[in-house]
Amino acid sequence: MRKYFLSLLFGILFSISAFACLNGEKMVLANQDVLYIDFDGEVPYGHQIGGKEELEEFLVKLKKGYDKTKDIDYLSDEGYILILLGRYQEAIDLYKKIESLRPGRYSTASNIGTAYELIGNNKEALKWIEIAVKIEPHSHLKSEWIHINILKAKIKGATSVSSIDLIGKDFGNEKIPQSTLSKDDLQLLKMQIYYQLNERMTFVKPKNAIVAQLLFDLGNIALLMNQKYDAEKSYLQAIKYGFENTVLEDRFKLASQALAKNGKQVSDNTKESVKVNWIGLSFFSLSLILLGVVIFKFRKKIFSLFK
């Protein structure tokens, strides 16, 4: 009987968590607090982080967690929160402590690299990001080569950056983007750029030439793949980050006009998306109700299991 009740409870709880996490990538800290849940889709907006007060509360919890468990993941997450709070040198010092305690962790090298970049030490940042790639070359959808190219461009001190500098590809200056890449290769490149941008836009706010260029490239790939909604939104983000080019204006109009002509189809897709979300939300609500009913009906037996 005990096994039955626990299985039922865990089954219900699992179904709740599954439907509660449909809205994009999320980061769960070592103490199981959720730091962020990203927007769904392939248009980057940066991680949706809480305010300073909430981040400070996370720091306190993580410090207590590490003191209690000595689990290095608590320290690593503490360093990431310090970066989000703009306390970059503290984060670097903490990650170097982690490196001395547990050498060769990917998250240590990657986050030290990020912190160094944010304080403007791009050479040291490049060193650590390259170490991170050697430790885990498949991380971040194998997209860290873009991060390396960004750092190399910054070290050169170029006043402007191009698609070739950042992603080794160019989509031409015609009204419609040009590429010899296959559809699969375009989609992979799109996701790699998206991943790098979503990380970078968490810390780098408008205006920024590198982010603007990558957003323009992201829009070009989306347009090539006939993903006009993503193209339009990426172009808008590029403009927000300071990209100025008549080619962008032409391509933005192309994406917008195509969306206007296919308004019914976009509307139908939106309705379908809303329908799916409502189904998920309904299932989530029913799961909560069912859990409450089960706990209430069998409360004496359930509570006795934990005595």
Summarize the structure in words.
Helix 3 packs antiparallel against helix 4, helix 4 packs antiparallel against helix 5 and helix 12 runs antiparallel to helix 13. This protein has 307 residues and is mostly helical. It is globular, with a radius of gyration of 23 Å. It has 15 helices and two strands. A hairpin with a 5-residue loop joins strand 1 and strand 2. The two termini are 15 Å apart. Strands 1-2 form a two-stranded antiparallel ribbon.
List keywords for this structure.
single chain, 307 residues, mainly alpha, two-stranded antiparallel sheet, 15 helices, 2 strands, 72% helix, 2% strand
Biggest β-sheet description: 2 strands, antiparallel
Summed over residues and divided by their number, the pLDDT gives a mean of 84
**H and E order:** HEEHHHHHHHHHHHHHH
Task: Quickly count the helices.
Answer: 15
> Which regions have little confidence, pLDDT < 50, spanning 5+ residues?
3-23, 264-281
User: Total strand count, please?
Assistant: 2
The fraction of residues assigned to DSSP E strands is under 5%
User: Strands across the major sheet, in which order?
Assistant: 1-2
Structural class: mainly alpha
Estimated helix fraction:
over 70%
User: What is the terminal separation in angstroms?
Assistant: 15 Å
Overall 3D geometry? globular
Radius of gyration: 23 Å
Please state the oligomeric state of the protein chains shown.
Answer: single chain
